[in-house]
TrEMBL record:
Source taxonomy: Bacteria, Pseudomonadati, Pseudomonadota, Betaproteobacteria, Burkholderiales
Record organism: Caballeronia mineralivorans PML1(12)
Listed name of the protein: Propionate--CoA ligase
Keywords: ATP-binding, Ligase, Nucleotide-binding
Pfam family, one: AMP-binding_C
Family: Belongs to the ATP-dependent AMP-binding enzyme family.
Length: 630
């Protein structure tokens, strides 16, 4: 066994030989001719000429050995429904779904937009697309109509798959009116919407474009749809990042590179063996859901657990009981869920038999030290923080326990994963920072397999957004600050842009600002994220009104605050709603007119706002302080 250092060096210095070997982990219908094509940087093509299929690797390939093993265990504490599907049953369901989609005109290369809650059909639909060679674009079910419309126009799908409703914390959220409104807003016309009827929404829409899934499923009950063999570099899916600027970025991924990278990660990082049970408590609408609820565990022959519900319903012990009941071996979630669980009665955790659990994985946001220490001592199992992005598809920093069980260090997710030539760089010069020096986390060309190929439909945006931060150098910027230590461990120090993370949901502060300023009373607004002990971050809004006297009447402040909250709900969903709205006479700005969001956030968190050169109106910061004190 090579040490981590040797293995990583080889993966960077000789990617052809390293990834050529890793490629044996999956089935190739036609072998590839070339491991890596780097003729057109910053684009990279992996396993050129090889033909494969994600659905075949996730299901069909396992039928010989594990037809009767559970592939999917579905648990909903919202509806009380629990279902199990063996690999053979999953195969049948995905064939049915694929046949239904085919009958509705879905063919290779077409897009299917999936707007579904956490139900097994979400997984069936994604794998059915993969089977047909169609490109899925899953939109998180919490998004409101305008966000959905923007994604419809960008992906131009031939079909939308949705459900009557989602359910969260005991509340039913009707989906069909949202889809209806999104379709009305979108320029692109989608001919058909396939409706999974959960019988949750009493007043579900009866629009003519809606096609009920159940009767079609019956009709195609015994269907067998062959897997379409795709060249490794054809697109498998598009997944939008939260989008700090108006238009979200459609992260496009390939087929072969993604399958190989996930299979390798399951061994090198997650140590998931065939027959293990893995529970990733995330949503299929996020990248963690795509990679570690669906593709990676199935490609590696595990049982995957899909969960609809929160960590504290019916009570704060539910997650521990699920681990016990389903003998979960690997668990993956976000630190925000742990911060919620930490507040529960410790007995609830102690009472559960957690002996099946081997490792807990956490990603998506910084793992704060108190939470890390708590879970470590309460669980007495390895806790593996891992750092990555929608763009990379799998962890770029973690402890590669499957290669070498390096000891974790508090405050750092670990070391660069195989194939990631990751460095911390001076933001201006691009020079590699010395240990202890803060810089931007960057990746050398080429990105390893599994990473984004391009921005959907916009190669130049891919280059401009990610590869242009240091002129003259072929460097991918993560837009996150980081620092390394003497041993090569990397710590993440936050983002260079303005995205906030509320309870695991990523929101662009600029999007929230846009929603608020759409209200006619608003002249100007600044939204910042501030630390929150439960949600990670919450949004605070600082609003300048067109007419300051509008607040003079009794109750006007509260009424306006409620109206602004409604505007945010309508544009982005309730999750984006600011925790507080403060009204100011002016906003603090630099002389060049740039809003001092960072300084406002610092004041809101009780920190020193730091150096403020060239501030336009020093009184503005005092106003912020006074508003916060009220
Ligand atoms: P957008 O790119 O549209 O602004 P986003 O960056 O919020 O959206 P994701 O790709 O889901 O969307 O999030 C990736 C980001 O999450 C990383 O760039 C980093 O800032 C943060 N992150 C992820 N995992 C960790 C971690 N383990 N520790 C610290 N930060 C993390
Ligand atoms: Mg990002």
């Amino acid at each position: 066994m090579p040490t981590y250092r040797e293995a990583h060096r080889r993966s960077i210095e000789d990617p052809e030989s390293f990834w050529g070997e890793q490629a044996r982990r999956i089935h190739w219908e036609t072998p590839f001719e070339q491991v890596l094509d780097r003729s057109n940087p910053p684009f990279a093509r992996w396993f050129v000429g090889g033909k494969t299929n994600l659905c075949y690797n996730a299901i069909d390939r396992h039928l010989a050995a594990r037809a009767r093993q559970n592939a999917l265990v579905y648990v909903s504490t919202e509806t009380g429904i629990e279902r199990r599907y063996t690999y053979a049953e999953l195969h049948a369901e995905v064939n049915r779904m694929a046949a239904v989609m085919r009958s509705l005109g879905v063919t290779q290369g077409e897009r299917v937009l999936i707007y579904l809650p956490m139900i097994p059909e979400a997984l069936f639909a994604m794998l059915a697309c993969a089977r047909l060679g169609a490109i899925h674009s899953v939109v998180f079910g919490g998004f409101a109509a305008p966000s959905l419309a923007a994604r419809i126009d960008d992906a131009t799908p031939v079909l939308i798959v949705t459900a009557d409703a989602g359910a969260r914390a005991g509340r039913v959220i009707d989906y069909t009116p949202l889809v209806d409104e999104a379709l009305a807003r979108a320029t692109h016309k989608v001919p058909k919407v396939l409706l999974i009827d959960r019988q949750l929404a009493p007043e579900r829409l009866q629009a003519p474009y809606l096609v009920a899934y159940e009767p079609l499923r019956e009709r195609f009950f015994d269907a067998h749809v062959p897997c379409v063999w795709l060249e490794s570099n054809q697109p498998s899916y598009v997944l939008y990042t939260s989008g700090t600027t108006g238009k979200p970025k459609g992260v496009q991924r390939d087929v072969g590179g993604y399958a190989v990278a996930l299979a390798a990660s399951m061994e090198h990082i997650f140590q998931g063996k065939p027959g293990d049970t893995m529970w990733t408590a995330s949503d299929v609408g996020w990248v963690v859901g795509h990679s570690y609820i669906i593709y990676a565990p199935l490609i590696a022959g595990l049982t995957t657990v899909m969960y609809e519900g929160t960590p504290i319903r019916p009570d704060g012990g539910i997650w521990w009981r699920i681990i016990e009941q389903h003998r979960i071996n690997l668990m993956f979630t976000a630190p925000t869920a742990l911060r919620v669980l930490k507040k529960q009665d410790p007995k609830l955790m102690e009472q559960a038999d957690l002996s099946s659990l081997r490792t807990l994985f956490l990603a998506g946001e910084p793992l704060d030290e108190p939470t890390a220490q708590w879970i470590q001592s309460a669980l007495k199992k390895p806790v593996v923080d891992n750092y990555w992005q929608t763009e990379t598809g799998w962890p770029m920093i973690a402890i590669p326990r499957g290669i070498e069980a390096l000891s974790p260090k508090l405050g750092s997710p670990g070391v660069p994963s195989m194939g990631f030539a990751l460095t911390v760089r001076n933001e201006a010069t691009g020079e590699i920072c010395a240990p202890g020096e803060k810089g931007v986390i960057a990746l050398d060309y080429p990105l390893p397999p599994g990473c984004m190929q391009t921005v959907w439909g916009d190669d130049s945006r891919f280059i401009k957004t990610y590869w242009n931060s240091v002129p003259g150098q072929q460097l991918y910027s993560t837009f996150d600050w980081g620092v390394t230590d003497e041993d090569g461990y990397v710590s993440i120090l936050g983002r260079t842009d303005d995205v906030i993370n509320v309870a695991g949901h990523r929101l662009g502060t600029r999007e929230i600002e846009e929603a608020i300023s759409s209200h006619r009373a608003v002249a100007e607004v600044a939204v910042v994220g501030v630390a929150d002990s439960v949600k990670g971050q919450v949004a605070l809004a600082f609003v300048v009104l067109r007419d300051a006297q509008a607040l003079d009447k009794a109750g006007a402040r509260e009424a306006l605050e409620a109206e602004l909250a409604r505007s945010v709900d309508a544009h982005l969903g309730a999750i984006a709603r600011p925790a507080r709205v403060h009204f100011l006479a002016t906003l603090p700005k630099t002389r060049s007119g740039k809003l001092l969001r960072r300084a406002i956030a610092a004041l809101a968190e009780g920190r020193d706002p730091g150096d403020l050169p060239m501030i336009e109106d020093a009184g503005a910061l005092v106003q912020v302080k006074e508003a916060l004190a009220r």
